[in-house]
Amino acid sequence: MKTSFSLNLLLRDNIKTLVPYSSARDEYKGEASILLDANENAFGSPYSKNYNRYPDPLQHRVKEKLHHIKGVPIENIFLGNGSDEAIDILFRAFCEPGRDNVILVPPTYGMYEVSANINNVAYKKVVLTADYQLDLDRIAEAIDPYTKMIFICSPNNPTGNSIHRQDIETILVNFDGIVVVDEAYINFSRQPSFTQDLAEFPNLVILQTLSKAWGLAALRLGMAFAGKEIIEVFNKIKPPYNINQATQDIVLEALEGVDIVNEWIKEVVEEREKLAVALQTLPQVAHVTPSDANFILVKLEEPRALYNFLVSNGIIVRDRSKVALCEGCLRFTIGTPEENITLLENIRKFYDQSL
């Protein structure tokens, strides 16, 4: 177990002394029949359902439901507008602009770099190995006294593979800063989540989302799991009502659908393997990266021309051919069986007409 981690040493001084905004709904607990504290419209909303009252600032009912599904205590859960809000808060909490830095391990999710730039925080890139795993020696060399966070996406985007668990644990044990493990695609993975290891690693922050397996991308609800003290920092920094009531209502109803989501996950994994096998039969396909996500990264001939051909036929995929270690690759999200068949038909049509 790690003993040298100190949250107080990592926090920015202005965050340590920050007095968070106290909303009207923070100032009382329980039920009330007359609410005259928040300057709301007491007459209702011009809609079939009333949304005239401010939402629960800490989303207790949603967190209670997630607690039962994820097995994580409520005090260890933060909800944000997508994982992007949690990422931004991490930078604002722990990184002094113009002084501190973070480590990124490309190819990886691009929002880490964008958020670093927005917050004027330097980043060091330690490229993954040829098999898309962590280069532990180079990461160790890149760490300096001003390195506050290391971001690891597992399963990784855009490659789809899971990062070796023992390598992540090595960093957690030996790095005094925050280790962010982004598990946006964990539902499709063979590896277990790190959410059951929060007590063992006090410097661990796990990001997850309802946008992928749960099919709620339009709602933009992200989750962060961490020790109680780190979650308290998140809640201190976030806007008072960061998750609107409509989103909370819909999510509560959707979280009743665990069984159907599990069926979707099973079908996505089956379709992923079928699509990978089918693509590997094409002579123009050089490599299909084994995936633990709901997409596959495929190295093939004429990636940009194929991308344009697919777009012209109404099929949108992701061109990753100019990304480091992904040269010549397109990324295909796993669709419905019918969509996957149509994708394959169009890929074959493109290569046939190129002969």
From TrEMBL:
<protein>
    <recommendedName>
        <fullName>Histidinol-phosphate aminotransferase</fullName>
        <ecNumber>2.6.1.9</ecNumber>
    </recommendedName>
</protein>
<dbReference type="InterPro" id="IPR015421">
    <property type="entry name" value="PyrdxlP-dep_Trfase_major"/>
</dbReference>
<keyword id="KW-0032">Aminotransferase</keyword>
<comment type="pathway">
    <text>Lipid metabolism.</text>
</comment>
<comment type="similarity">
    <text>Belongs to the class-II pyridoxal-phosphate-dependent aminotransferase family. Histidinol-phosphate aminotransferase subfamily.</text>
</comment>
<keyword id="KW-0808">Transferase</keyword>
<comment type="subunit">
    <text>Homodimer.</text>
</comment>
<keyword id="KW-0368">Histidine biosynthesis</keyword>
<dbReference type="InterPro" id="IPR004839">
    <property type="entry name" value="Aminotransferase_I/II_large"/>
</dbReference>
<dbReference type="InterPro" id="IPR005861">
    <property type="entry name" value="HisP_aminotrans"/>
</dbReference>
<comment type="pathway">
    <text>Amino-acid biosynthesis; L-histidine biosynthesis; L-histidine from 5-phospho-alpha-D-ribose 1-diphosphate: step 7/9.</text>
</comment>
<dbReference type="GO" id="GO:0004400">
    <property type="term" value="F:histidinol-phosphate transaminase activity"/>
</dbReference>
<dbReference type="GO" id="GO:0000105">
    <property type="term" value="P:L-histidine biosynthetic process"/>
</dbReference>
<keyword id="KW-0663">Pyridoxal phosphate</keyword>
<dbReference type="InterPro" id="IPR001917">
    <property type="entry name" value="Aminotrans_II_pyridoxalP_BS"/>
</dbReference>
<dbReference type="InterPro" id="IPR015422">
    <property type="entry name" value="PyrdxlP-dep_Trfase_small"/>
</dbReference>
<feature type="domain" description="Aminotransferase class I/classII large">
    <location>
        <begin position="49"/>
        <end position="345"/>
    </location>
</feature>
<dbReference type="InterPro" id="IPR015424">
    <property type="entry name" value="PyrdxlP-dep_Trfase"/>
</dbReference>
<dbReference type="Pfam" id="PF00155">
    <property type="entry name" value="Aminotran_1_2"/>
</dbReference>
<keyword id="KW-0028">Amino-acid biosynthesis</keyword>
<feature type="modified residue" description="N6-(pyridoxal phosphate)lysine">
    <location>
        <position position="212"/>
    </location>
</feature>
<dbReference type="GO" id="GO:0030170">
    <property type="term" value="F:pyridoxal phosphate binding"/>
</dbReference>
